[in-house]
Specification:
Elements: H1 3-15, H2 18-25, H3 29-43, E1 48-51, E2 54-57, H4 59-83, E3 90-96, H5 98-103, H6 105-115, E4 119-125, H7 128-136, E5 142-146, E6 154-168, H8 175-180, E7 189-192, H9 197-208, E8 216-219, H10 222-230, E9 236-239, H11 240-247, E10 253-256, E11 263-271, H12 278-289, E12 294-295
Parallel strand pairs: 3-4, 3-5, 6-12, 7-8
Antiparallel strand pairs: 1-2, 5-11, 6-9, 6-10, 6-11
Length: about 300
């Protein structure tokens, strides 16, 4: 079983067809077709079901895919390790929650870039659940996510301690006033898409306040959520460090919470068994020089 065949197989599975996979692999369609046929012949069973809309994995293909992904990731890691000469350079893919990227990371990333200009740093934002999956799948070298995280393939370091606050329009001076002035179903909650840990905490908070059926509106950007809170469309839950940027402008009101939901740790996670290259080690050193577990 050739590694190149497994790489081609994984690309077809990811792209759902020969044409798109060939484009991703920068090769011709006939080469992709031949490699898939050769792999199916070697294994002795079809790996894909062919249909008019593309190709989908058979049961055998679904069983093979995790192994193919792991072998491809290990191959890429081995190549990176062999090329690592102790100088911080090359690609480094970091993930982050939208809120952390907006407030905590700009000075850190600027400092890292100044110290290590040869590192090709990229930043992807998203909810905690998707970022953790991307780190496990080797699509990200590390990510800033909301704790707690408990996965055998991940290791984590506390990066920041955040205080969460409830944000409302300015006219709601207290939580009691908000509760008295809303229908029985409660205020609309404005959240990021599923997988965001702040969303889960806000849903739990609404249930504790007696509004378990509060309507939800999903947003893709932090500015969109804060703008709609200011327009009195609903409420949201965010770190105080994020909220203060808007509160200073007078567009939203912060409400302090009580109990365990008030505090949350922002963790930097990475794969436990992965090779830690010089670029990633340098990034971690930059984190440490700025003080891990920085209080909000």
């Amino acid at each position: 079983m050739e590694l190149s065949d497994l790489k081609t197989f994984a690309a077809v599975a990811r792209c759902g067809g020969i044409t798109r996979a060939a484009g991703e692999l920068n090769t011709v369609q006939s080469n992709v077709t031949n490699r898939i046929r050769a792999l199916e012949t070697e294994i002795g069973t079809p790996l894909f079901e062919r249909h008019a809309r593309g190709m989908t994995l058979t049961d055998a293909g679904r069983r093979l895919l995790p192994y193919a992904d792991r072998l491809n990731a290990l191959s890429n890691e081995a190549l990176a390790a062999a090329r690592d000469d102790g100088v911080a350079k090359g690609p480094l893919a970091i993930g982050s929650m939208e809120t952390t990227a907006a407030v905590r990371l700009p000075p850190l990333l600027a400092q890292f870039h100044q110290r290590h200009p040869e590192v090709q740093l990229s930043l992807r934002t998203g909810p905690t659940a998707l970022l953790a999956e991307a780190v496990i799948a080797n699509a990200l070298d590390g990510a800033f996510v909301a704790g707690p995280i408990d996965h055998p393939d991940l290791m984590s370091t506390v990066a920041f301690n955040e205080e969460l606050v409830l944000l409302t329009a300015r006219r709601w001076k207290t939580l009691a006033a908000l509760r008295a002035g809303t229908p029985a179903s409660g205020p609309t909650i404005l959240v990021f898409r599923t997988g965001c840990s702040y969303r889960q905490r806000l849903e739990q908070l609404m249930s504790e306040l007696g509004w378990p059926t509060a309507a939800r509106l999903e947003f893709g950007t932090l500015d969109g959520i804060i703008g709609c809170v200011a327009a009195d469309m609903g409420v949201t839950l965010l770190p105080r460090a994020v909220a203060e940027r808007s509160d200073q402008a007078g567009i939203v009101r912060m409400h302090t919470l009580n109990g365990p939901r008030r505090r949350v740790e922002t963790l930097f996670i990475r794969r436990r068994a992965a090779h830690e290259g010089t670029a990633l080690r340098s990034f971690l050193a930059c984190l440490k020089s700025n003080g891990l577990s920085v209080a909000a």
